[in-house]
C-alpha cells in the first residue's frame, strides 16, 4: 500500500479526481441555475449532468477510473477493487473538488441568478424515508452500470463513457422531482458548503447513495459474478500489487468447469 501511495501515478489519479469533480459540479449545477431569461428544463439538467460525466469518464477514466463520486469509490472499496488509501484520498479529493467547483460557479454567477446554487432538497412533499429509497435505487443502477461497463474482463464492446453518462441522465430524469437528484454525496456537499445551506435531510444525500452503491457492489462482485476475481487477486488489490490477467476468459471457464459435477 505504501508503495502505491508514493508514486507519481497515484498523485496524478488523486489530482484527476479533484479536477474532474470540480468540472462536473460546475457544469451540473450551472445547468440548474434559474436565469431570469429562461428557466432550465428537467431534460436540460439531466443531459448536462449525464453528458458531463460521460465526457469526464472518456477524458480521465484511464488515469484514475474517473469515479467522481464518493459513493462509487466506497463501493469499489467494498468490492475489494481498490485499496483503502486510494479510496480515502479519492473521497477527500472529490469533496474538495466539489467545494471548489461550487465556489467558482458561485463567484462567476450574477447575484440575481445564484439562488440556492441547486442545493439538493426534498421536493413535492417527499419524506426523508421516501427520498432515501429513491436515492438508493438511482445510485444502485448507476453503480451497477459502472461496474459492468468498466469490467475489462468481460467480453463484448460498448462505450463505458456513454453507458455511464446515460445512467446518470436517466437517474436525473426521475430523481429531480423527488430530491433534485444527488446520486453523489460530493455533488450535494459542495453547494451546501458554499451557500451554507444544510437542510435537516442532508444526511439522505450521503446515506442513500452510499447504501445504493455498496449494495450494487456486493451484488455484482460477490453474487452475480463471483468467479470474476479470485481471493488472491482481491488481496493483491488491497496490497496495491494487482495486475489484471489477459487470459481471464480462460480462467473463468476453468472456474466454471471446476464447479460442475462430474457425470457418472
UniProtKB/TrEMBL annotation:
Q: What is its main location?
A: membrane
Annotated keywords: Cell membrane, Cytoplasmic vesicle, Glycoprotein, Membrane, Repeat, Transmembrane, Transmembrane helix, Transport
In its UniProt record, a GO molecular function of this protein is:
water channel activity
Q: Which InterPro entries match?
A: Aquaporin-like, Aquaporin_5, Aquaporin_transptr, MIP, MIP_CS
- Pfam families documented for this protein: MIP
Q: What residue spans carry the region label Disordered?
A: 244-264
Reactions catalysed = H2O(in) = H2O(out)
Where is it located?
Apical cell membrane; Cytoplasmic vesicle membrane
Question: What kind of membrane protein is this, topologically?
Answer: Multi-pass membrane protein
* GO term, biological process aspect, one: carbon dioxide transport
Compositionally biased residues, Basic and acidic residues: 252-264
Q: Which Gene3D superfamilies match?
A: Glycerol uptake facilitator protein
Where would you find the membrane-spanning parts of this chain? 12-33, 45-66, 87-109, 129-149, 161-180, 203-225
- Identify its protein family: Belongs to the MIP/aquaporin (TC 1.A.8) family.
Matching entries from PANTHER family are given as: AQUAPORIN TRANSPORTER, AQUAPORIN-5
Describe its partners and assembly state. Homotetramer; each monomer provides an independent water pore. Interacts with TRPV4; the interaction is probably indirect and regulates TRPV4 activation by hypotonicity.
What's the protein called, per UniProt? Aquaporin-5
